[in-house]
Write a structure and sequence with these properties.
With 110 residues, the protein is mostly helical. The protein has two domains: 58 residues, no CATH class; 42 residues, no CATH class. The longest helix is centred in the last third of the chain and has 18 residues. It is flat, with a radius of gyration of 24 Å.
């Protein structure tokens, strides 16, 4: 048996214009609940689900504030310069992992 979305796409046919594409989108999803849509999306391969998740999250973020990207670029350059100059306070990977283990253990006790 064909996948429900594939069957409906086949019955409707390919969209010749943007307006028809919108109608097709509405026709495909018109009878689907959010739970049905989620169930279908979860059947996709992990890579495709990750792309969809990223786009959904991006759609919730809104427009970035002016200058934020430049500020992060400057911060990254500043931190990199400190590490290269030897003035940054650093810890080893092992120390970091031990700290994270402690934090996770503390969270698990809550």
């Amino acid at each position: 048996m064909a996948h429900p979305l594939e069957r409906e796409r086949h019955e409707i046919g390919p969209p010749p214009t943007a307006n028809v594409r919108l109608e097709i989108k509405d026709a495909i999803f018109a009878d689907m609940t959010t739970a049905d849509l989620l169930a279908e999306l979860l059947r996709l391969p992990a890579e495709e689900r990750a792309k969809i998740a990223a786009e959904l999250l991006k759609s919730l973020d809104g427009e970035p504030e002016e200058g934020v990207e430049e500020a992060w670029d400057a911060e990254i350059k500043r931190r990199t310069a400190e590490v290269r100059a030897g003035t940054a306070s650093t810890i080893s990977l092992e120390e970091h992992e031990a700290l994270m283990d402690q934090k996770w253990a503390a969270r698990a006790k809550r």
